[in-house]
């Protein structure tokens, strides 16, 4: 039997925030490894359509589905729309926002609430739908959920994004608890904690120079690329990680 990186079952994969950054890289790599991909986005439809074209160029099927993961109804309709591709066996809980960098004492309440709404409440609701569609006792086929945490959950992001770090701490707890809850259901639940990764999120936080400034002080002396994070995510989704659940894989260049 052929063994290799493409070993094992694939199926329909949902990626929240699949239009840009780590999510887009995950959609592309997952398609190359045999997944059909439901690509969720919030605003940037042209970017999502470009990712879909790349998924199809890899010979897989793609669906582009708009939805704000901070809105419970949008989470439900994302899963309903994705099911048109077939039974869902993989979910990447990736959509995330950071807020505007600064000390916590200066942070507006509505900004903090907005980050928590996407990164915590939204991610928990996505995980809930993943449990509902994949759990064997509910008629699902089993599968894998990968939650995007951050090394900020353990470093704390002082002076920059303490609220964001706290939101990722919630992802770590979600991963621990849900992995135990869904172990008997044939659903593996893991987290990936990226370090400094070259995406738009840093400019969105008002710090376009953040990577250049901080990367030199890291053990590997550079920022990571979204493709390097996608490798970890797609491995955790795959049957190659068949006995891995409840893990939190740091992809942080030693930081
Ligand atoms: P990014 O480049 O800013 O892309 C964010 C993606 O999430 C976009 O596709 C965006 O969609 C989508 N999104 C944002 N808010 C959404 C919402 N409410 N509903 C649905 N989709 C939404 O971010 P990234 O750097 O790739 O980050 C991806 C994940 O990795 C996040 O959870 C982030 O916290 C985590 N992470 C990133 C880093 C890093 O250094 N980059 C480090 C650690 C952890 P639109 O295109 O439509 O706006």
TrEMBL record:
Transmembrane segments: none annotated. PROSITE patterns: ADH_SHORT (PS00061). The keyword Oxidoreductase applies. SUPFAM superfamilies: NAD(P)-binding Rossmann-fold domains (SSF51735). One of its GO terms (molecular function) is oxidoreductase activity. Pfam families: adh_short_C2. Keywords: Oxidoreductase. It comes from the Bacteria. Belongs to the short-chain dehydrogenases/reductases (SDR) family. This is Glucose-1-dehydrogenase. It comes from Methylopila turkensis. The lineage of its organism: Bacteria, Pseudomonadati, Pseudomonadota, Alphaproteobacteria, Hyphomicrobiales.
């Amino acid at each position: 039997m052929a063994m290799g990186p493409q070993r094992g079952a694939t199926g329909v994969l949902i990626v929240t925030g699949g239009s840009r950054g780590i999510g887009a890289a995950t959609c592309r790599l997952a398609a190359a490894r045999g997944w059909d991909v439901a690509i969720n986005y919030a605003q940037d439809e042209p970017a999502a359509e470009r990712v879909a074209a790349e998924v199809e160029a890899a010979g897989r099927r793609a669906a582009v589905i708009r939805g704000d993961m901070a809105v419970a109804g949008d989470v439900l309709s994302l899963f309903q729309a994705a099911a048109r591709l077939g039974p869902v066996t993989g979910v990447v809980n990736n959509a995330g926002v950071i807020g505007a960098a600064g000390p916590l004492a200066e942070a507006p309440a509505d900004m903090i609430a907005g980050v928590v709404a996407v990164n915590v409440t939204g991610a928990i609701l996505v995980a809930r739908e993943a449990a509902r569609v994949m759990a064997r006792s509910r008629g699902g086929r089993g599968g894998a959920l990968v939650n995007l945490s951050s090394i900020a959950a353990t470093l704390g992001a002082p002076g920059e994004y303490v609220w964001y770090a706290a939101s990722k701490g919630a992802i770590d707890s979600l991963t621990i608890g849900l992995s135990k809850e869904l172990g008997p259901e044939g659903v593996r639940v893991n987290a990936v904690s990226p370090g400094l990764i070259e995406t738009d999120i840093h400019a969105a936080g008002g710090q376009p120079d953040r990577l250049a400034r901080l990367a030199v002080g890291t053990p590997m002396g550079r920022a990571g690329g979204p493709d390097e994070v996608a490798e970890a995510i797609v491995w955790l989704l795959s049957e190659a990680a068949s006995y891995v659940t409840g893990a939190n894989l740091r992809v942080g260049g030693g930081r």
